[in-house]
């Protein structure tokens, strides 16, 4: 048993009257000790559930991110006119609404905006459809790439994917605890604002509960992050909803936020989300979007693409962003980016990089 971890556990697990929040340094230490297995299984399980009940603070999230920075992988800086976008999406996937994030990433990359995504396989507690499965169905398999090859793909295509089972295996043990506990620990919140990129970044994170937004702001502020976007998106993702007004927080200097409310109706979109069917059905829908064929999912792609093209600074406003998204999709530029990605990942030298 670790006596150091025992003291940290006592702070978060002592209840409303005597419990205390961890400092940033303590949160970093606790996270490192859990990832490295220096705390016992009983201590780790108790900490995760106690911390969930207590709820994390922004300072604690900053400390957890510090530990991820210390132990985890990072893609190295690439040449870009704008900060690289990091899309933070719940790792346990989607179960109700069709995800559009891979199309958004392809669209942004086709317009010259680099994007980094991160995540793993089907994971607890939702075991929903993860991004990695969608990419695989599109013929893009990130799962066997070492970080060196992922870096090369990122440099050549403007899209990178940090696949945690391969690039950050220390996190796998925490997922086992999460499955056994049946609840999302604060790690799941922190992952949404994790940045596995060493250069200038624009953190874009989805969230569900309003208090999460303020925690994000504090955590990123402590870490010196000045460019961020928080989206109350579909199932906690970065995908803008169509069935309601999108609630968005934009970073605004100095150390503030600008509230943005976007109504789909104001831009000619029907207020209806596309439901998630089978993975095969989603693949067919995405292929239709990439060909520019009219569909409900195409409307979702335009709604999201327009916003992110504007937010990244490529377009001056939402309407020009939507028009640009339509042009990129109907011209075949987004599908061409997918073909480029496939070709590079499946290139003849792939075996060489797998041995690195």
From TrEMBL:
Keywords: Amino-acid biosynthesis, Aromatic amino acid biosynthesis, Glycosyltransferase, Transferase. GO terms for cellular component: cytosol. One of its GO terms (biological process) is L-tryptophan biosynthetic process. Residues 6-70 form the Glycosyl transferase family 3 N-terminal domain. It comes from the Bacteria. GO terms for molecular function: anthranilate phosphoribosyltransferase activity. Transmembrane segments: none annotated. Residues 97-333 form the Glycosyl transferase family domain. Pfam families: Glycos_trans_3N, Glycos_transf_3. InterPro entries: Anthranilate_Pribosyl_Tfrase, Glycosyl_Trfase_fam3, Glycosyl_Trfase_fam3_N_dom, Glycosyl_Trfase_fam3_N_dom_sf, Nuc_phospho_transferase. The keyword Amino-acid biosynthesis applies. PANTHER family: ANTHRANILATE PHOSPHORIBOSYLTRANSFERASE, SLL1634 PROTEIN. This is Anthranilate phosphoribosyltransferase family protein.
């Amino acid at each position: 048993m670790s006596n150091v971890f025992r003291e940290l556990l006592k702070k978060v697990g002592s209840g409303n009257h005597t419990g205390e929040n961890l400092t940033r340094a303590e949160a970093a230490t606790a996270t490192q000790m859990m990832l490295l297995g220096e705390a016992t299984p009983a201590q780790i399980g108790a900490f995760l559930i106690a911390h969930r009940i207590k709820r994390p603070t922004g300072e604690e999230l900053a400390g957890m991110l510090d530990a991820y920075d210390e132990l985890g992988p990072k893609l190295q800086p690439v040449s870009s006119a704008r900060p690289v976008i990091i899309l933070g999406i719940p790792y346990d996937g989607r179960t109700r609404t069709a995800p559009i994030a891979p199309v958004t990433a392809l669209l942004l990359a086709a317009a010259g905006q680099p994007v980094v995504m991160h995540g793993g396989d089907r994971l607890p507690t939702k075991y929903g459809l993860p991004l990695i499965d969608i990419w695989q169905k599109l013929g893009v398999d990130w799962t066997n790439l070492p970080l060196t090859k992922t870096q090369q793909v990122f440099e050549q295509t403007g899209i990178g994917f940090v696949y945690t089972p391969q690039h950050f295996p220390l996190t796998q043990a925490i997922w086992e605890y999460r499955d056994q506990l049946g609840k999302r620990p604060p790690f799941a919140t922190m992952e949404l604002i994790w940045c596995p990129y060493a250069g200038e970044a624009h953190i874009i994170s989805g969230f569900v509960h309003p208090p999460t937004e303020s925690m994000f702001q504090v955590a990123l502020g402590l870490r010196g992050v000045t460019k961020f976007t928080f989206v109350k998106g579909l199932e906690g993702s970065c995908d803008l909803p169509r069935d309601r007004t999108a609630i968005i927080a934009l970073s605004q200097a100095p150390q503030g936020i600008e509230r943005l409310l976007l109504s789909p109706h104001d831009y000619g979109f029907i207020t209806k989300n596309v439901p998630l069917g089978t993975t095969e059905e989603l693949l067919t829908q995405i292929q239709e979007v990439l060909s520019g064929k009219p569909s409900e999912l195409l409307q979702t792609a335009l709604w999201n693409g327009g916003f992110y093209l504007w937010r990244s600074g490529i377009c001056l406003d939402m309407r020009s962003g939507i028009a640009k998204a339509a042009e990129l999709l109907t011209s075949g530029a987004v599908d061409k980016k997918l073909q480029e990605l496939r070709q590079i990942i499946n290139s003849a030298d792939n075996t060489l990089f797998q041995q690195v």
